[in-house]
Amino acid sequence: MPPKGSRKSASAINKTLVLDNGAYTLKAGLVPSNSQSTPSYDDCSVIPNCIARSHRDKCTYTASELDDCKDFGELAFRRPVEKGFIVNWEAEKAIWEHEFMGAKEALRCEPRETNLLLMEKPNCPKELQKNCDEIVFEQFEFAAYYRCVGPTMAAYTAPNAASSTPSPLPQECLLVIDTSYTDTTILPLFNGKLLQSAVRRLTVGGKLLTNYMKELSSLRHYNMMEETYLLNEIKEAVSYVTPSPQQYAKDLDRTWRGRLGDRRELDSSVVVDYVLPDYENAIHGHARPHDPAKSRMRRGMQPVQGPREDLLPLGNERFAVPELLFNPSDIGIQESGIPGAVMESLSILPEALRVGLLANVVVVGGNSLIEGFMPRLEAELRTLVPSEYLLNITRGEDPVKHAWLGAARFASQPELLREVLVSKAEYDEKGSTWLARRFAGER
Amino acid sequence: MPHVEVLPNSAASVAPGWTYVVDTGYDPSKVAFNPKNKKRAAAVPSGQRGENDLSARQQTAIARRIAELERDNDPKQMIAIPGKPSVPKTQNARRIIQYQRQIKHWLDDEEAQLAQQQQVPPLRRETTGVRNAGLRRQSTMPPTSTEATPAPTLPPLRMDIDAASDDALLDVSGSVPPPLDHATLEALLSAPPLPYSQSFAAPTPAGGPPQRQFCDNCGYWGTIKCRKCGARVCGLECKDAHEATRCLKWA
């Protein structure tokens, strides 16, 4: 229990910075507590969590400055978050200062008069957590602070979040599948608390998919090893998950060129040509159905006058890349896919919990936006789950911001927030070891 | 051969960026990086590799590739922070901000600490046991929870069939899972988080479908094995391309 004085000071401050510090993007927003308006997706800004450097225009872009970038060619990134955990505080500090204390109006706040609710990944090494706590209080000097595992906050909002009203009670049983940039984690929650021993993690996340796409395109077409930004864009635009392994085999046949002397026409309903941006006329590329004549012309010669275009044909890359989420063993990762990991996580829990969790599964994280992801996940889980069990699986309305919204709703209710916040005065008195224990759930 | 030993002197200091790591002994995942046994597989008495077993070289290549695919930052290019950095406010903050360590250093630290706390019974082994039991139960049982209802010891077949069988037919207690035990729940809720390295999902069980093999070059089914390095290709054309670029024979 915090002492009385600190409780007063924590509640006197009625503005909370809710920050989901992801490896790829920061999800941030200032939430006033005890206000009548409930926070919505619009209150959340998604900011790239990186410092990018272009070799071409010799410019360095910090976080949201990336929106002004006009040439993403050979853009190099420095990301302060590695494997989901804040590792490099030099870069993270620069990004936080730029976004929350810089010239930009939208999220500017005075840390001494703001509470911080920071969301992290599960299974964070203790040393890194300690570093984080120390920086928050000693460098930024936030008034009060709470650190929690991000996706657990999804319990405080319903999947169709826009319509629902915030409730002070978390959902009783909730299974969160968080398929994010770094990795994919399975988090069973009971009354908003994480069942830590059942958390499971898959190596496959958006980053691995993008890099795999990059590797395949570089092997088969042009050298794209430096074009991370472009390949991420291509992945988001064209990739899809096949509905079943059988359909995977069919699509693989449709994209096969055939043997020497027995050429096949590529099926243009699957194969697409991606028109690459030249960063003069177009910053972003686009996909269009495959045209064999055009790609033959590409090999011959391009018109000297008129618009030139470079095409990247994409066949089985479109569905073989996101397939890794379901079959990591395709490239030799010795893990079962998402459905297998879900069953593994549930298998150590008592049966009553298992039933409750399966009846309320929510998927968050950017990979779930890949076309066909949800039907495939539901179909594969259904085959693994005993037929008597109810299986209810939904995707958060905006899967990227879903956990943030839960946290924002949590933060907008002063009585909930007061329970968990730790003020700077308390930290100064009791130190970081005490703080780590307290956030770990010990009192 | 003369015995050479580096004696510690006063100049030896703890540099940031590396740490001593406790050697935990045999770790099959690390053997692949640094195979000690350079002898041919055929010379090993345990016999030849199976059809689908990977050579040490292939395992190294796969492990390296996965590490490459999930890397966050390129160590070769260092991007400086633009602008003049603000001064750290405390000594502690300065120390943390100046760390140049990567995530693998922190994870190695965590591993080393775990190894030091070995006297505490390893948590994961317990959970694996439970997990295996759970898996076995799930795969075999029709989940109407045979362990919840006691074994059918009393046969109500002939005795009072009119009263009891109606009850038995209407009885739903067999399909309702046993209620949550408060103590188990408390234990689950208060369990400490697993260390990062132990939170990963298990590999697919051995009885599952075999690993799918794809062409190294074009991504179609890999039906042919390269005789030199064991990678899979789909046909002659891709085999030529494979040998020209990716074959591990000379890697």
Give a written overview of the molecule.
Chain B: Keywords: Metal-binding, Zinc, Zinc-finger. Chain B: One of its GO terms (biological process) is chromatin remodeling. The complex is a heterodimer of chains A (443) and B (251). Chain A has 443 residues and is of the alpha+beta class. Chain A has 14 helices and 22 strands. In chain A, the strands form six sheets. Chain A has a six-stranded mixed β-sheet, with helices on both faces. In chain A, strands 11, 12, 13, 14, 20 and 21 form a six-stranded mixed β-sheet that branches. In chain A, helix 3 runs antiparallel to helix 14, helix 4 (206-220) crosses helix 5 (228-238) and helix 9 (338-347) crosses helix 11. The termini of chain A are close together. Chain B is mainly α. Chain B has a two-stranded antiparallel sheet. In chain B, 12% of the residues are buried. The longest helix of chain B is centred in the middle third of the chain and has 18 residues, at 123-140. Chain B is extended, with a radius of gyration of 29 Å. In chain B, a hairpin with a 6-residue loop joins strand 1 and strand 2. The interface between A and B is large, with 95 and 87 residues.
